[in-house]
């Protein structure tokens, strides 16, 4: 089957789906599934904008609300993970995953589903060591710390995913697995993004948690976004025994959703022709959720997952075939995910803007139903219980401010030595947030003055690449040979030749206007949505 993979969507759903329709009209290629690797921005209303960790001037309503309200429907089944620029209050309603709109499914903090026999997993958020060992304690309304920590990866999600034994076909993460750049054309990457050099050379770019999962899961494909650059790599995994068959992962990072960017990729994935067209639960994953349910934590205290170190009576939470069989029997062997999408918040009305709408902590009926069906803890219900128990000591968010230091870091060190989210501090294409607050007021809601007329994109077919049979990167590329272009070494072919007027994706020592010399970054929070820099 054909799978479309998108990078950071940033709420531009119309642009994304229009590009897919263009693909079908021009080349008769219709993807069966669309995957989005984070920064999806499922913003329903002004309150959701207040929960998105970006400077106020970048808080635009975009077009998701039209799909949420039912005005529009996604033309292709869409599955996405969360990034670091999301309406965190909305996604928090679905910690185990669920529908954010008809035909648009969120994988949750971490999750595994099946579509036509293809096993798809993912983990939401980005890595920050000072929050990695905490529980999911955040709740709206967020403060200056929790609006960020809400999207930080937690060790419990990584632990759950590491209990998987059956093969994974596709895996998604928002930030890149650390070290993956050593398995692709690193020289070309640094030509396009020279500000990555220090972190690449010190091997601190990317998520160590994602790297750990990559080495454990060994999926056939791994897709990421976050750094706003296209990059392919091929990683051959080491075998643990002579009997084990060699495994390799084809890695691809996608660009952001903007005109003339490589934000969309089409790949052919082997599937089960006898499988149905519905999105399905994964029986092993459900069994793992049941097995690890006792580990659910909603406090901000740092804690370690069970491991074989003499301190834990049990450390292996992987599941048996019998446990998987029990899940199948519970579901009467019908793994189809119910289409039980429900509106849980008022939808944005362009004719009646409500800039002072406040976010509330919501229990989503989808999560309630899922937890009841499988005997799981509803994380948001647990958080609300904790808030009620601590009501005598003040509101939830006030407690968090008092107990956390100015950076939101925990007293105990992380098991990882670094504190790196996988985002270079000098990436001018990313919205960067100062962990100590910065000079931007995140509490001010700013709505796009023309939400019904978002920035027009000239839909260009250069935004799409169709992946060939193999994404193999040559060994010369992996060793930084003189071959400077990944496309020449087995990379993807363009569906259509780019016109000479399209701007280059490369930045080789100059600015986007082609001027030579060192690129000067005038501000950290450079525009991610607008094509032109406001300072120019």
From TrEMBL:
Q: Where is the Lariat debranching enzyme C-terminal domain?
A: 235-380
Q: Which Gene3D superfamilies match?
A: 3.60.21.10
Q: Which family does it belong to?
A: Belongs to the lariat debranching enzyme family.
Q: CDD domains given for it?
A: MPP_Dbr1_N
Any one of the GO CC terms: nucleus
SMART domains reported for this sequence: DBR1
The answer to whether keyword Transmembrane helix applies is no
One GO term of the biological process aspect: mRNA splicing, via spliceosome
What protein does this entry describe?
DBR1 enzyme
Main localization is nucleus
Keywords for this protein: Hydrolase, Iron, Manganese, Metal-binding, mRNA processing, Nucleus, Zinc
Which PANTHER family does the protein's record reference? LARIAT DEBRANCHING ENZYME (PTHR12849:SF0), RNA LARIAT DEBRANCHING ENZYME (PTHR12849)
UniProt xrefs under InterPro entries? Calcineurin-like_PHP, DBR1_C, Dbr1_N, Metallo-depent_PP-like
Q: Where is this region: Disordered?
A: 385-536
Comp. bias intervals (Acidic residues): 396-405, 431-442
Q: Which domain of life is it from?
A: Eukaryota
Spell out the Basic and acidic residues composition-biased ranges: 385-395, 485-510
Q: Where is the composition biased (Polar residues)?
A: 415-427
């Amino acid at each position: 089957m054909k799978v479309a993979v998108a990078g950071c969507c940033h709420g531009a759903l119309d642009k994304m789906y229009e590009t897919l329709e263009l693909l079908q009209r021009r080349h008769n290629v219709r993807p069966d599934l669309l995957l989005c690797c984070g920064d999806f921005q499922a913003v329903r209303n002004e309150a959701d904008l207040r929960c998105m960790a970006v400077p106020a001037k970048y808080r635009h309503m975009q077009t998701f609300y039209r799909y949420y309200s039912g005005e529009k429907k996604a033309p292709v089944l869409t599955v996405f993970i969360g990034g670091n620029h999301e309406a965190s209050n909305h996604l928090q309603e679905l910690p185990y995953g669920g529908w954010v709109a008809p035909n648009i499914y969120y994988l949750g903090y971490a999750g595994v589903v099946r579509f036509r026999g293809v096993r798809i997993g993912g983990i939401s958020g980005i890595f920050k060591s000072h929050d990695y060992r905490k529980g999911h304690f955040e709740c709206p309304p967020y403060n200056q710390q929790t609006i960020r920590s809400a999207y930080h990866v937690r060790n419990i999600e990584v632990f759950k995913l590491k209990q998987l034994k059956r093969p994974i076909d596709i895996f998604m993460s928002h930030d890149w697995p650390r070290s993956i750049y050593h398995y692709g054309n690193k020289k070309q990457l640094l030509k396009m993004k020279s500000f990555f050099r220090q972190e690449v050379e010190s091997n601190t770019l990317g998520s160590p948690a994602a790297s750990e999962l990559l080495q454990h899961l060994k999926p056939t494909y791994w897709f990421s976004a976050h750094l706003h650059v296209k990059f392919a790599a091929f990683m051959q995994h080491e075998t643990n025994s002579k009997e084990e068959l060699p495994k390799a992962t084809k890695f691809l990072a996608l660009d952001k959703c903007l005109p003339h960017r490589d934000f969309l990729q089409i790949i052919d994935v082997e599937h089960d022709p006898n499988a149905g067209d519905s999105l399905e639960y994964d029986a092993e994953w459900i069994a793992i959720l049941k097995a690890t349910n006792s580990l659910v934590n909603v406090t901000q205290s740092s804690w370690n997952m069970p491991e074989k170190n003499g301190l834990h009576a049990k450390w292996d939470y992987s599941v048996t075939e019998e446990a998987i069989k029990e899940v199948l029997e519970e579901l009467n062997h019908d793994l189809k995910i119910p289409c039980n999408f429900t509106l849980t918040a008022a939808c944005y009305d362009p004719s009646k803007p409500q800039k002072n709408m406040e976010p509330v902590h919501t229990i989503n009926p989808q999560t309630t139903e899922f937890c009841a069906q499988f005997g799981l803890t509803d994380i948001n219900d647990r958080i609300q219980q904790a808030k009620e128990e601590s009501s005598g000591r003040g509101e939830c968010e006030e407690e968090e401010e008092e107990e956390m230091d100015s950076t939101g870091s925990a007293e105990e060190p992380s098991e990882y030595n670094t504190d790196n989210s996988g985002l270079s501090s000098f990436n001018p294409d990313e919205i960067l947030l100062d962990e100590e607050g910065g000079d931007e007021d995140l509490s001010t809601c700013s709505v796009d003055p023309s939400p019904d007329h978002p920035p027009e994109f000239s839909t260009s077919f250069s935004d799409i690449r169709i992946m060939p049979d193999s994404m193999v990167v040559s060994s010369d590329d992996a060793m930084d040979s003189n071959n400077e272009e990944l496309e020449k070494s087995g990379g993807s072919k363009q569906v259509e030749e780019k016109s000479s007027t399209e701007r280059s994706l490369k930045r080789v020592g100059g600015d986007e206007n082609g001027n030579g010399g060192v690129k000067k970054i005038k501000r950290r929070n450079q525009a991610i949505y607008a094509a032109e820099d406001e300072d120019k």
